[in-house]
Write a structure and sequence with these properties.
By secondary structure, this protein is of the alpha+beta class. Helix content is 37%, strand content 18%. It is built from 17 helices and 18 strands. Strands 6, 7, 10, 11, 12, 13, 14, 15, 16 and 17 form a ten-stranded antiparallel beta sheet that branches. The longest helix is centred in the middle third of the chain and has 24 residues.
């Protein structure tokens, strides 16, 4: 994790030319001149006390820096995903500040490849994406040992590509250590078994106990014992909540907020009720008996037919109708329980209206569903296949069937025909303004998987889709709280330019960098 943090700081510092963090400068350019390489990047001394550095292939123009920083400043992530990324961006000076270890982890795992979309030459951009893809792969919860050699070969190629574009000063010991990470995994196991995020978080808690800086150990011991005593006593009080202690993430994920009872129109209620019947296992036998009829008027009148069918079977003295089918045959109540926040399956969801007023984004959802595919409108042999659908939660309801309640999400889905695409780098992009079938809006809350959307820096109406992992907690002794970050891309960018000798080291479309001469150090030397 510390290798990832140092590599991230060097990379961002060099791209944004952050003083004290960048690996590029007058000395780095003079080193290349002394080595006899990239002489086109040689610093030029001008009249006065400043030096001009030509724009290298990794140099960002001011407009590109604004685009990079504004992309990160506009990111909203799900609850518990990371810190508030917007607070790390300083738009005035166009730089990132106060980056912690986990902030660098989040950037390298998912956000940095998106922030550099549309900036830098294609070869440099793909090289950085390859490096981020490598870190994402080695941080997986499960790693196939047979693929470690492939990861080793890929990181060698990636470092060779970095050496083609970045100055030699960029390659300190931390960048070099990345080449040994696959072998370390082979010897020691997955990375997540050895990283220190939980330790660093707990050290922050212990530091908060210090009230007297002359006696830090005593303050920590005193507060720790007091906290342990209070928690020990609270275990003997039934349904007691500690005062002044915020809810843990496991409690927030399983919680609900914004509860209210609202009436809905009959058409929307029938649509939600039909989806429940269509996706409930116990109702499948009744649907299969009417296969031919379903193709014509199934969605329009199946609910009323199913209700009459169950009533007919219940009239018989000997029937085997279960209680669940009996209550499903009746339509749910017109008044539904509406929530602005709902936790289920390790995810915490909010409505899009709530997200518009929040610093987090919990309304993005993805569902894998079976759909009918036809080659043409006259295709007589359509096939069923699974597809991924992306959307935004508009309402969170609990349908009341008297004896039980079923949580459903009413979503605005993106049309897959023209609203979803995959670019050359494997990023999935969606057009949230291109709405799909308005008569097919509902899903079970248990079917949803959480995603979040980042506006594509290239502009336009597209947004990049990023997936998350559920935070699963076991109420017993074992807790599965592994922070695995899904891949941001469906594949690794190609490295066709590995043998390309015609590399443009100077950017003609970008302004250079002026370095002011440091006179303070000279004055100090004269005094000594």
């Amino acid at each position: 994790m510390h290798i990832e943090k140092n590599v991230c700081e060097s990379l961002i510092g060099t791209l944004l030319n952050i003083p004290g963090k960048t690996k590029d400068g007058e000395n780095a350019r003079l080193d290349m001149v002394a080595m006899g390489i990239r002489e086109s990047l040689k610093p030029v001394s001008e009249e006065g006390k400043r030096t001009f550095l030509p724009a290298a292939c990794y140099t960002l123009s001011r407009s590109e820096k604004k685009q990079f920083c504004s992309t990160l400043a506009g990111v909203k992530v799900p609850t518990g995903y990371s810190s508030n990324i917007k607070s790390l961006v300083q738009m005035k000076d166009l730089k990132l500040i106060n980056l912690k270890s986990h902030d660098c982890h989040t950037l390298m795992q998912q956000l940095l490849p998106i922030a550099i979309r549309g900036v830098l030459p294609k070869e440099v951009r793909n090289t950085i994406i390859r490096l981020c893809y490598f870190f994402n792969s080695i941080c997986s919860k499960i790693i196939d040992p047979s693929k470690l050699q492939q990861l080793q070969d890929e990181v060698v190629v990636t470092l060779c590509l970095l050496e083609k574009y970045f100055p030699p000063a960029f390659f300190d010991v931390m960048v070099h250590l990345t080449i040994h990470l696959p072998r370390e995994i082979k010897l020691c196991g997955p990375v997540w078994l050895r990283w220190m995020y939980s330790m660093e978080r707990y050290m922050k808690i212990l530091k908060g106990y210090v009230r007297n800086r002359h006696r830090p150990e005593g303050c920590i011991i005193e507060c720790y014992i007091a906290e342990e005593a209070v928690e020990f006593c609270s275990e003997y009080l039934a349904n007691a909540r500690t005062i002044g202690v915020p809810k843990g993430i496991e409690e927030r994920i399983e919680s609900r907020s914004g509860f209210k009872v609202i009436p809905i129109d009959y058409k929307t209620l029938c649509e939600a009720h039909y989806y429940v019947l269509q996706n409930t296992t116990v109702v499948d036998p009744y649907m299969s008996k009417n296969e031919k009829w379903l193709q014509a008027e199934h969605k329009r009148s199946f609910s009323s037919w199913f209700k009459r069918k169950i009533e007919t079977e219940l009239a018989r003295p000997e029937n085997t109708i279960s209680q669940q089918i009996r209550w499903l045959a009746h339509e749910p109540k017109r008044e539904v329980l509406s929530y602005s926040g709902y936790g289920i399956g390790g995810y915490y969801y909010n409505t899009s209206d709530h997200d518009s007023r929040s610093t987090t984004q919990n309304s993005g959802v993805m569902v894998e569903a079976e759909s009918l595919h036809m080659s043409t409108a006259k295709d007589k042999n359509p096939i069923y296949a699974n597809m991924l659908y992306y959307g935004v939660i508009e309402d969170i309801w609990e349908l009341n069937y008297t004896q039980f309640k079923i949580p459903v999400f009413r979503c605005k889905w993106v049309d897959n025909k023209g609203g979803v695409k995959v670019d050359e780098n494997g990023f999935t992009l969606v057009d949230l303004n291109k709405e799909g079938d308005p008569n097919d809006q509902f899903i079970f809350a248990s079917q949803a998987k959480q995603v979040f959307y980042v506006n594509d820096p290239n502009g336009g109406r597209w947004s990049v889709v990023l997936t998350t992992k559920p935070k699963l907690y076991d109420r017993g002794d074992v807790c599965d709280n592994i922070e695995e970050t899904p891949s941001f891309s469906r594949g690794l960018p190609e490295s066709d330019d590995i043998d390309n000798e015609d590399v443009a080291y100077v950017r003609e479309d970008c302004e250079g960098i002026y370095v002011e001469e440091d006179t303070t150090s000279r004055k100090k030397r004269k005094k000594t």
